[in-house]
TrEMBL record, chain A:
Record InterPro entries: FAD/NAD-bd_sf (IPR036188), GMC_OxRdtase_N (IPR000172), GMC_OxRtase_C (IPR007867), P2Ox-like (IPR051473)
Stored Pfam families: GMC_oxred_C (PF05199), GMC_oxred_N (PF00732)
Protein name: GMC family oxidoreductase
Organism: Shewanella phaeophyticola
Family under the similarity heading: Belongs to the GMC oxidoreductase family.
Lineage, highest ranks first: Bacteria, Pseudomonadati, Pseudomonadota, Gammaproteobacteria, Alteromonadales
Keywords: FAD, Flavoprotein, Oxidoreductase
Domain Glucose-methanol-choline oxidoreductase C-terminal: 382-465
Source organism superkingdom: Bacteria
Domain Glucose-methanol-choline oxidoreductase N-terminal: 153-277
Residue ranges of the TM segments: none
UniProtKB/TrEMBL annotation, chain B:
Protein name, entry field: Twin-arginine translocation signal domain-containing protein
Transmembrane segments: 12-30
Superkingdom to which the source organism belongs: Bacteria
UniProt keyword list: Membrane, Transmembrane, Transmembrane helix
Amino acid sequence: MDDHYEMIVIGSGFGSLFFIKQYLNKKPNAKIAVIEWGENRSHSWQVTNNKNSEFSSSNTHAQDSHHKPWNYTIGLGGGTNCWFGQTPRFIPADFEMKSKFNISDDWPFSYNDLEPYYMAAENIMAISGSDAMGKVSPRSGSFPLPPHRVSAIDEIMMAAQPNLHFPIATARSPLALKNRNQCCATAQCNLCPVNAKFTAHNGLTEILTHPNITYFMNAQAREVIHHNGTASGVMYLTNNAEERSIYGDLIVLGANGIQSPAILLRSGINHPQTGVGICEQLGYEYEVFLNGVDNFGGSTITTGLNYSLYDSHPYREKAGAALFYFENRIKHGLRLEEGRWRQVLPLLVAIEDLPQTSNRVSLNSQGQAYVSHANVSSYARAGLQHVHDNIEKVLAPLPVEKIIPLRERPTESHIQCSLRSGHDANKFVVDGDSLHHKMRNLVVVGSSTFTTCPPANPSLTVAAMSLRAADRLV
Amino acid sequence: MNKSIERRKFLKICAATSIVAVLPLGIYVLDNESRLCQLVEEILTKHLPGRIILQADIEKFSKDFFIERYDIALKTHIFSVLAPLVRVASGFDEDLHGKIDNLERMILTKFLLNSDFFANDAKKKTIIYNGATSNICRTKNPFAQFLTP
């Protein structure tokens, strides 16, 4: 049968493509179908048209108008197109929130279980970073690329806090590579003008052009077809709203944290926790005026990461952990004083949130994904307060003139925890190997399966989890 | 009778409201470029004392800046028209991306980053405007130092 595949993959972002890559490593002759809602838009198309896709996030799901926005790309490569390329690993404690802090839940695997796959994902994406980062996220090997040049501010911080402040880990290349150019530090990373950051288009071309993979473009996956607890295919809509179906032995759901639960709900695969807990980090911006230290001399837009309120956070039982991003981009402008133009530090803080049952993805009357997210958790709010209370101590090594709290960011563009993973089949949607608890030939990939919501960026962890899931399945 | 008075009153209110609503736009259309350019010149002169910037460069920069930042052009224009007391009383200062400092920083930063100022180590007396950069590279960083292979 022409329309029968060994594996059907819904979506083509980090979760899907890294799963396919590892699957093909093990089974190079597998016949695979990918169902992608969007178009195949090249890097040059995206830069020329000043957007990643024709689809706007707000038109592809519904929500209360006064709730926070959610941001994602629908198109071949998914989030690999619009991401900024920040790739810190999680830290070991992130996977043991219940055991260590009596907060939320433990993940169904440990940092050590994931570490080899972190290494593999970093090598595939040619990640730049400093091995000193192993002090917070232990490493079995070196970063494939050297770290970016840091700013004078980072140098002071690294000297004073060698176990807590590090050059950024990033998929924005510090050097010209065969398939990518050197990062130009222009702060337009969602539409990288020089093609320096890893994307599916420049880093996974062998998957996008693989002869065994059929890509169904402009195909909106609507339902997973199933019978007696076994998934057997996917029903999708074409551009002309025609219903079509294809069939396969293994279904991999990797749409995104909003669309994946909506597909399961439309399919009638009704695990009670489907869509429950959607969240992302709480982002906050500061501006720090300095006395006598110039900023902006680094080689990429974010040059330093500070873990003072993350790894060594003594109050994580009560307040969300926070990760500080030391910005090398002229985000709020130069200073107005002659000769002190650059003595300013834009600072971004990402604070851990927790999945709450009140926040969820459901379906509206048209069967469209509907997101209810009234607010972040009190745990995240306590984390933000902890940051406000301690930021002076964190920045103590710097000649700080004043710290200006600016604003909460509307979104971090990270959609997580809407199909959480865990051992307990009643409490979690998928297990530790990314298999749906109620349908054992249905794999769910992507940040929707995160058990909790650590402060670090999710994409590298998504890639590592997909490599691990495929490795364990085949 | 009463009804017709009310109708007249209603029409007057509508007319007055329309004038109030349309007036700023009218002023903006008739007078925007010169007003905005004057404001830009005041800001650059204030923060770059003793530097020489050609009038043509200021005009060109002002035009480029408000084409890119069309979102704040009208607000900035109204800001430049209103007396300071009225601005504060109306809360307009707060609306304009926070405070006027921010507008000044925005304009000064954009001008300096798109000029030869930093290329000449900020020492040359005359500053030459290089023209608008592409939208994609609108926040270019002239201070970035890159790794060499």
